[in-house]
Automatic annotation (TrEMBL):
InterPro entries: Mediator_Med27. It is found in: Nucleus. Residues 156-183 form a coiled coil. It comes from Aspergillus viridinutans. This is Mediator complex subunit 27-domain-containing protein. Residues 1-12 have a biased composition (Polar residues).
Length: 346
């Protein structure tokens, strides 16, 4: 016990490496924050930035409190039954020195991992940005520390959650309004869906044949280069006074659907904007080069089940409003792992 309070001039015999609490090597520290017209001060404009930063600091403080219970507490726990049987409330003594040693190394390793995790958090770029911002504000303030009350007055992670929820609701609302406008625009197109097909045909995409049926709301699309055909059918929409467009199960008459066509049809039918025929036609046309377009994630043509990239997704950055959609190809398996981080945008 006494040895723990001595400076650690000797290496512990257990082989546990105690991390040094010093700054990382100089070359990993980014250039100093500009103090005049500081960038970080200007970049912090939203409430969200402040709240999320405070939430991070609050979490870090909670971790510090947790770490305080390490020394003389959790770290030394295995020897409590020996030095203070009463405090151990009749917990059995370790059966052998070897068992005690193993218990001690286990707790020591876990403790070191805890400290390392904290250090990594402390030195992370996101926390550094917060410190930089605080430094910049202190400089702006003529070197005076901003005086807090010394306690957390709000639970910032709760506040952050509320803010994020609000922001999501706002985005959804905006999207609904935007979609409503687009629907109205499509409804007002003279000649209805046939005009939309006509506009698409006028794009003259090589190898893409589109035929509208004479008396039914039905369209056949043939991708010559890819050797695929799709039948589109108008179906009842979801109560928006507009039809939806579905890709039918059958391929060209007398020709069974290939595995690729089935996979592509499934992806087409899972698209957002089911009512948007122009969007669907554009998406189908993006399959023209299906046999030459590698997956945007793994960069390969076929995955380990010999499947071509049968998924198409709008590139979220390049497909901004009012611009033609930029489609990206993916293998179904490659998209599963990134589902949550890249939701299909509508
Ligand atoms: Zn892939």
């Amino acid at each position: 016990m006494a040895s723990t309070s001595k400076p650690s001039s000797q290496r512990p015999a257990t082989g546990v490496i105690v991390p040094k609490m010093e700054h990382p090597p100089q070359d990993t520290i980014p250039a100093e924050v500009p103090d005049k017209d500081n960038a970080s001060g200007e970049a912090w404009t939203s409430e969200m930035q402040y709240v999320s930063s405070l939430a991070k600091l609050q979490k870090m403080e909670a971790t510090i409190h947790q770490l305080r219970t390490l020394l003389s507490g959790r770290l030394m726990d295995p020897i409590v039954p020996i030095v203070s049987p009463k405090a151990a409330s009749r917990r059995p003594l370790p059966k052998s020195p070897r068992e005690l040693f193993e218990q001690l190394s286990r707790t020591a390793r876990a403790s070191v991992a805890e400290v390392q995790e904290f250090q990594a958090m402390w030195r992370s770029p996101e926390i550094k940005a917060i410190w930089d911002h605080v430094d910049a504000r202190i400089k702006q303030n003529g070197g005076q520390l901003l005086q807090p009350t010394g306690m957390w007055e709000r639970d910032y992670d709760v506040l952050l959650e509320e803010l994020e929820k609000e922001e999501r609701a706002q985005t959804e609302q905006q999207q609904r309004v935007k979609e409503e406008e687009e629907r109205a625009k499509i409804k007002s197109v003279e000649g209805g869906w046939r005009t939309i097909v006509e506009i698409f045909v006028q794009r003259n995409l090589p190898g893409v044949r589109v035929m509208a049926h004479q008396d039914q709301p039905r369209i056949t699309v043939v991708l010559v280069k890819a050797g695929m055909a799709f039948q589109l059918q108008a179906v009842n929409g979801d109560g928006h006074d507009m039809v939806d467009w579905r890709v039918q199960d059958m391929a060209a008459p007398g020709k069974p659907k290939t595995k690729l066509e089935t996979a592509v049809a499934a992806c087409l039918n899972a698209r957002p904007r089911q009512w948007d025929l122009a969007y669907l036609l554009d998406m189908i046309a993006s399959y023209s080069d299906v046999k030459q377009t590698p997956c945007a994630k793994c960069g390969k043509m076929t995955d380990n089940t010999a499947q071509l990239p049968s998924i198409r997704r709008p590139n979220p950055i390049q497909s901004s409003q009012g611009q033609p959609v930029v489609w990206e190809a993916y293998h179904p398996a490659c998209i599963d792992s990134s589902q949550s981080s890249h939701p299909i945008s509508s």
